[in-house]
Design a protein that fits this description.
It is a single chain. With 464 residues, the chain is of the alpha/beta class. The protein contains 13 helices and ten strands. A seven-stranded mixed beta sheet has the order 3-2-1-4-8-6-9, with helices on both faces. Strands 5-10-7 form a three-stranded mixed beta sheet. The chain is globular, with a radius of gyration of 23 Å.
Length: 464
């Protein structure tokens, strides 16, 4: 109701201003928007500088805590074996590990593939009971009640985590003297599917991830601000995760929501350095649904946390605006801005005159693009991802595609607010050099029996 009242008041003020002085109102809106985007560009540059500070290494605790690994899978029969093989490389004492492959009861193909694949003794198949909505956060919540670890992490079907990631997270939690650290985010890095020349979408997607996980999130962490979590490689204190109610099953970016919900309850977030490698979504027909879901979830998250913004406090509200709010605003305006610029250039060229571009608009365009390029370039260097002049020149086309995804997201939010656009995953092609395997005690136990989690041994549907 508060949001409706505020929107009504804002709409009424704009209507009155347009009636009294339409030209003045237009100028004020343009100037305000331009100043806001200039401030956002300055904020990005600030994060690049702040995030350059080296991370502090922490010694692991003498006794490593119990750790639960959750991987929610749906229609992933093709890649479940690959995920199991990658999880088996994790360097952590097996007797301190619990792993749950969280599967849907109707997904017989993935269940059969998971049961057929050789698994370490600590990794079980967990079948979530039937229910709605059919989303990843609901499946994770079903498994959360059966987690036995002091710490808990989440991985996706296509993930390849660094074998030392759990040890680093355990050391960071152990070093938290204030006891307010609830979650650590590992950096996500995009690796092309093959050694051949990567596509335009893959390169831009990888650079976007690098900017986010190598500059923005570390910078916000150093400034003590909350941020939207990534959908995978989050490391939680299990008791805190349960205390805040787990994940929002209706939010299609449950990770972004959870980061701010933890902050609202007085907890803090951090980052670690050991990465998780992922592959890009692929061609445009796969990229668009994924990005549509992300933007739709951002819209949901912004709507939920702006209902009572004072509960976030000044720093939390600022963070919500410069991450979720700015992400939505940027995606909405990129296409329009580029269309306006292209139209101005074409019309001026046809008329044989110099394009008339207001100085403020030109400044916003130049500074905004430069700050985005800087984030991608610095993030790419830190992640070992190439980002050169050709990628910079191609970036505006990618930004325009974000506007297309924004329009899809807005429409889907109205028509199907809780529908989950599933990203299809395929096995990665073999690589010449693979990461070194974990020590022998953590390797795959080829003789371990196929097991189903005890809580769901008697599933509502046959799982053999």
């Amino acid at each position: 109701m508060d949001q409706v009242i505020l929107l009504g008041l804002a709409g009424g003020a704009v209507a009155v201003g347009g009636w009294v002085d339409p030209q003045g109102l237009g100028g004020a809106l343009v100037t305000t928007t331009a100043v806001a985007f200039l401030a956002l560009a300055a904020w990005r540059i600030t994060l690049v500088v702040v995030s350059a500070k080296p991370a502090v290494a922490h010694a692991p605790p003498l006794v490593l805590p119990r750790y639960t690994i959750l991987a929610a899978l749906h229609d992933e029969a093709e890649v479940v074996g690959q995920l199991i093989e990658r999880l088996s490389r994790i360097d952590y004492p097996p007797h301190r590990l619990q792993g749950l492959l969280v599967l849907e009861a109707h997904d017989h193909a993935t269940i059969a593939a998971a049961l057929a694949a050789p698994r370490p003794a600590w990794l079980e198949v967990f079948v979530a009971p039937p229910g709605r909505p059919l989303t990843k956060p609901r499946a994770l919540n079903c498994a959360l009640g059966h987690a036995t670890g002091d710490l808990l992490t989440v991985y996706d079907a296509e993930d390849e985590p660094d074998p030392q990631q759990l040890r680093e997270a355990a050391a960071r939690f152990a070093a938290d003297r204030m006891g307010r650290l609830a979650c650590l985010q590992a950096p996500l890095r995009i690796r092309p599917r093959s050694t051949a020349a990567t596509t335009f979408l893959e390169r831009q997607f990888a650079a976007e991830y690098a900017a986010l996980f190598e500059t923005m999130l570390p910078g916000m962490c150093r400034l003590g601000l909350p941020f939207p979590l990534g959908g995978t490689s989050n490391h939680f204190r299990t008791d805190v995760l349960r205390a805040v109610g787990g994940w929002d099953v209706w939010n299609v970016t449950e990770d972004a929501d959870l980061g701010f919900r933890l902050w609202r309850r007085g907890w803090r977030l951090g980052v670690i350095t050991r990465p998780t490698w992922e592959t890009p979504p692929g061609a445009f027909q796969h990229w668009l649904p994924q990005r549509t879901r992300w933007l739709k979830g951002y819209m949901q998250t912004f709507g939920v946390h702006s209902r009572r913004p004072w509960e976030l406090g000044p720093r939390g509200l600022f963070s919500l605006l410069v991450t979720v709010g700015a992400g939505l605003a940027s995606a909405a305006i990129h296409g329009l801005s580029l269309a306006w610029l292209a139209t101005a250039v074409v019309v001026s060229a046809m008329a044989g005159v110099t394009p008339l571009v207001p100085p403020l608009a030109a400044g916003v365009l130049i500074v905004g693009a430069a700050s985005a390029w800087l984030c991608c370039w610095i993030g790419g260097r830190r992640a070992g991802i190439p980002y050169g002049l050709a990628d910079m020149l191609a970036a505006p086309a990618y930004w325009a595609l974000l506007s297309l995804a924004w329009m899809h997201a807005a429409w889907r939010l109205i028509r199907e607010p809780f529908a989950w656009d599933k990203t299809a995953h395929r096995p990665d092609p073999p690589r010449a050099a693979r990461p070194a395997r974990a020590p022998a005690h953590a390797r795959l136990d080829e003789t371990a029996p196929n097991r189903l989690s005890a809580a769901h041994a008697a599933a509502p549907q046959p799982v053999a």
